[in-house]
Design a protein that fits this description.
Layout: H1 18-30, H2 35-44, H3 51-70, E1 84-94, E2 97-106, E3 111-117, H4 122-136, E4 141-144, H5 148-157, E5 163-165, H6 171-187, H7 193-210, H8 219-234
Parallel strand pairs: 1-4, 4-5
Antiparallel strand pairs: 1-2, 2-3
Helix pairs in contact: 1-3, 2-3, 3-7, 4-5
Length: about 240
């Protein structure tokens, strides 16, 4: 029986080390830095690369690292009976035209699904919810704002008894928009819907990967969690 051939390394034929490529992609995606900011910070460390190299590596390896994070073990909280989702949509400009970025997070603030549409009607809400439910299955409660599209979509899905609407109850997802907004301002908006979809997915998963709720844990626990997240990142696509 022929031996299975080991998959080729995605870093093959690159002169730079995988460690450097991972560092560059992490700096650009995780922090609100421009391409030239990353170039200047690396130059201070004695690493001379062009900002266009940062752009190329982000476009080439960002989705790969995103897929690697998604293949990691599922958060055990998803097996709890009281698993709660928070769903909201945010306005995003693409070449001056308003689009809507739908996002669903759990009660810990971890992103579950994101989706970009030109409208925020019942059809768009229904498509987004069906994709999220297909990926993650049954949920105890879905918290939304008062947008009528949510009520119409959940009524068609037969989940209207699981919807929760109230003042301030959806702050979890509202606050989860803030890191993306900070990153969006640095990038000076988006030029194409494809670019928005790709960056929204990669940014959310990288942010969730390194998020350790430092305000809820002591210093030693936070340092251990941070080190574990960094070690996992350094082993992506190894």
């Amino acid at each position: 029986m022929p031996r299975r051939r080991k998959p080729a390394s995605p870093f093959k034929r690159f002169n730079s080390s995988p460690e450097l490529i991972r560092l560059v992609v992490m700096m650009y995606v995780r922090f609100p830095l421009s391409l030239r900011n990353v170039e200047d910070l690396l130059f201070e460390r004695g690493i001379d690369i062009c900002h266009e190299t940062v752009r190329f590596w982000w476009n080439r390896f960002g989705p790969m690292f995103d897929a690697g994070i998604k293949r990691q073990p599922i958060n055990p909280i998803r097996g709890f009976r009281q698993w709660r989702w928070h769903i909201d949509e945010m306005f995003v400009k693409i070449n001056g035209e308003t689009h809507y970025l739908w996002r669903a997070v759990d009660q810990e603030g971890e992103l579950l699904k994101s989706y970009v549409t030109k409208k925020r009607d019942k059809k768009a809400a229904l498509r987004f919810m069906r994709r999220a439910l297909k990926n993650y299955g049954r949920v105890e409660t879905i918290t939304t704002d008062g947008l009528p599209s949510y009520k119409a979509a959940m009524s068609e899905l037969g989940n209207q008894d699981r919807q929760e609407i109230g003042r301030w109850v959806n702050n979890r997802v509202e606050n989860s928009h803030l890191p993306f907004r900070r990153r969006e301002r640095v990038m000076q908006r988006f030029g194409r819907m494809k670019s928005l979809r790709k960056f929204a997915s990669v940014h959310a998963n990288v942010h969730s990967h390194f998020s350790s709720d430092r305000h809820l844990t002591d210093r030693q626990t936070y340092k251990t969690t941070r080190s574990a997240a960094l070690a996992d990142w350094q082993n992506l696509m190894a």
